[in-house]
């Protein structure tokens, strides 16, 4: 990374404002995630039953860990907060930050691929969907979901790091530049696989959904207007979520390619500011999409906010099990699934 000495004077207040705004936003997001996780776990055998929600719950837990880890391992040191503590611990905290960040990155990527596959089978193979995701071997999905990330993060155990001083802050850096280069190249390959898989799966799913919807319109014109409006709303919600997924993934992918491949001289402070913003947006998008597009979750969260102590006792009878994601991908009325989003932005060097 290049020196920060040439940064304009207006960058300091901009950095301060952006960091403060996103820090407050992340705090609210973490509170939302905490409520949603409690709801998903409490109702895991009723409203939120099925493999989709199991995968999704693990995914948002990892999002929370990633958010917290990024602030304690990156944002706070960059701001000079608790600087003496970080330095007194050597590079241990920084190394743990990178290990957790890259582990979470891998898990997030595998999570979105698994969720996309789950949703795609609901659309393309509605009859076999339940059979596929209730198989006794389906637990291997969790091995895939967690295993890739753990392998990526554990590869950093034996590496050496150092703190790079910039203004009042410190930033953890790889000591071995050759390893850093190879590590990032491997990350590019994995990220490319994630991107290609997600875009292919989502494209197949959307095409299949639209085709089945048109066929149903043609072959069953007797369906009442309410049913047709529901299907239109479901398709509309699905397209919004899919579009947000693709846009977020493309933005992250372009950012990674640019800072690590095209322009490797981006100043450290600029790199980390952009990274923190993208990371906060990505890690928070799942919870907000779930809140916006799930009728049951919206009702449960509202109830919990109004009456936290009373809410859990009433949760099981509040919402009928059939009222789940509004953005259903199964036009035949089977248990629906929904899109989560793209992998988070990558981790810093």
Automatic annotation (TrEMBL):
Query: Pfam families per the record?
Result: 7TM_GPCR_Srv (PF10323)
Q: Which Gene3D superfamilies match?
A: Rhodopsin 7-helix transmembrane proteins
Note the superkingdom of the native organism.
Eukaryota
Sorted keywords for this record are:
Membrane, Receptor, Transmembrane, Transmembrane helix
Instruction: Please give the start and end residues of each transmembrane region.
Output: 20-43, 50-72, 92-117, 137-163, 183-209, 236-260, 272-293
What is the protein name given in its UniProt record? Serpentine Receptor, class V
Organism field: Caenorhabditis elegans
Classification lineage: Eukaryota, Metazoa, Ecdysozoa, Nematoda, Chromadorea
């Amino acid at each position: 990374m290049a020196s920060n000495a040439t940064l304009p004077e207006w960058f300091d207040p901009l950095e301060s404002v952006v960091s403060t705004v996103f820090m407050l936003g992340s705090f609210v997001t973490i509170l939302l995630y905490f409520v949603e996780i409690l709801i998903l776990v409490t109702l895991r055998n009723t409203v939120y039953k099925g493999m989709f929600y199991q995968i999704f719950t693990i995914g948002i837990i990892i999002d929370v860990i990633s958010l917290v880890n990024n602030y304690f391992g990156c944002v706070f040191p960059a701001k000079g907060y608790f600087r003496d503590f970080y330095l007194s611990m050597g590079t241990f905290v920084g190394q743990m930050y990178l290990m957790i960040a890259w582990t979470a990155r891998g898990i997030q990527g595998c999570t979105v691929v698994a969720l996309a596959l789950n949703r795609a089978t609901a659309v393309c193979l509605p009859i076999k969907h339940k059979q596929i995701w209730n198989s006794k071997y389906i637990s291997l999905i969790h091995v895939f979901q967690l295993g890739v990330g753990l392998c990526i993060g554990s590869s950093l155990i034996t590496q050496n790091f150092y703190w790079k001083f910039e203004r009042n802050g410190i930033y953890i850096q790889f000591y071995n530049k050759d390893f850093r280069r190879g590590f990032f190249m491997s990350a590019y390959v994995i990220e490319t696989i994630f991107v290609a898989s997600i875009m292919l799966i989502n494209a197949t799913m959307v095409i299949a959904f639209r085709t089945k919807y048109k066929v149903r319109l043609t072959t069953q014109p007797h369906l009442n207007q309410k049913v047709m409006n529901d299907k239109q709303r479901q398709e509309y919600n699905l397209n919004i979520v899919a579009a947000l997924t693709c846009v977020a993934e493309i933005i992250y992918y372009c950012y990674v390619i640019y800072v690590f491949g095209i322009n490797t001289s981006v100043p450290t402070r600029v790199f980390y500011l952009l990274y923190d913003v993208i990371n906060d947006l990505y890690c928070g998008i799942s919870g907000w999409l779930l809140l916006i597009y799930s009728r049951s979750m919206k009702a449960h969260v509202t109830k919990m906010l109004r009456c936290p102590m009373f809410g859990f006792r009433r949760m099981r009878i509040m919402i009928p099990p059939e009222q789940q994601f509004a953005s259903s991908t199964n036009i035949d009325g089977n248990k629906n699934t929904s899109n989560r989003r793209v992998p988070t932005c990558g981790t810093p060097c």
